[in-house]
Write a structure and sequence with these properties.
By secondary structure, this protein is α/β, with parallel strands linked by helices. It is 29% helix and 16% strand. It has a domain of 326 residues: Alkaline Phosphatase, subunit A (3-Layer(aba) Sandwich), CATH 3.40.720.10. The chain contains 14 helices and 15 strands. It starts with a helix and ends with a strand. The N terminus is likely disordered. One of its GO terms (biological process) is glycosaminoglycan catabolic process. Keywords: Glycoprotein, Hydrolase, Signal.
Length: 502
Amino acid sequence: MSWHTELLLSLVLLSSVPSEAKNVLLLLADDGGFEMGAYRNRIVQTPFLDALAKESLIFNNAYASVSSCSPSRASILTGMPEHQNGQYGLHNGVHNFNSLPKVHSISSVLGKAGIRTGLIGKKHVGPDETYKFDYERTEEQYPINQVGRNITQIKLFVREFLQQTKSTSNGPFFLMVSFHDPHRCGHVTPQYGSFCERWGSGEEGMGLIPDWHPIYYVWDEIDLPYYVPDTQPARYDLAAQYTTISRLDQGVGLVLKELRDAGLEDDTLVVYTSDNGPPMPAARTNLYDPGMAEPMFIRSPEKGVRRNEVTYSMTSHLDLVPTILEWFNLTHPQPTTLTGRSLLPLLFQEPSNQPDDAVFASQSFHEITMAYPMRAIRTKRYKLIHNLNYQLPFPIDQDFYVSPTFQDILNRTLANQPVPWYKTLRTYYHRPEWELYDLKMDPTESRNLFGKSSMKDTFQQLSERLQKWLEVTKDPFRCAPDGVLQDTGAYLNIPTCLPLGH
């Protein structure tokens, strides 16, 4: 974004920030994509998300800055990419990744300003002192399914938080409700189904979630997205995912009803998005669009805002912290560390002259064994991906590996049988160092244009913009794979890329 554009945005902000900003409710799906009517999926039933969309500004170019659970949550909560906040991979278990000690999360900034903070559901980031909330009901105190999938329990936790807020301070609050649907669970608890679609359904031995009315889908009637192979196992897999998306949708409806019943709907900014793309091939853990393109709605209680309208402005999860800070009329303790921008002006009007805006993405790990750093820049027309460890095969995470979709791809490949998929397993594993796509002509990112003489200038421009962002955000990988990051001298202390002579 140009300096001229930033100045214009700052002027608009003077009139777009509410004078008495009250509350923020952030609703986060876990591995959710565009499986809802609001994004023209005609099969899955999501009446509550669709109703929220009609009251909101709908973002058609919203992107995660990383396609991995913990790193994405840390980026959402800090406004910094994973290589800047230090949450390179998954937080829990043997992975043991944590953000850097001096990082400021939105919960800590708001807490110091006297704003009550709460987190219900999946947390999956650390350390605790960085991501401390006044009210926490997460997997650190309860089983993950109870706080992330049991929508009746989530409803009661939301009610408790709102009642406590009213009885103690009656002041502003920030509440994050972090659902665990539609994340896979087949690798941990296969008896509940590949997406825990049986858990709480009322089936024998599955328990019962009182507020959930399960919806089941016919596998051969589903419209497959282009990145999912057209096989029976993949269709069964997607049907199971849709059932849990309907559970997520009903949970969103319960949370919004609690907000309304508490008399707080007219004082609360509501944001809905997902941490990353679905756990399908070319999606989660990838920087292709199925992995980083996200649904996003923002509903503002302010008068004159856009409702049931679409914005095509390039938007990043890194924009959420600046947006929340503007809403509360606060500044970040380290403003120079943020590269995002407030989205509040977009709630009132679409910029008349949009620059060649871009979003950036950075991924280094997912699980501890998945060292495959990638950096990317995406404009409305082009995407450039830099695969730093391109000489290694692309890694597969545990829960996707055991999924019916991947096992079918793997078994067909090993048996030399055709796979009705837009890729082969070999091309999926083995990627070039640079991938350049013209998304207008090639929305499925199937034709790599890197090395084409006609794309030389485009590659130069995109790679320079990407490198500049990596330098601004102090990416320790910014010299890889052909150089080593060094200080040029003890007195100058200017980081420099020194060549390896490959």
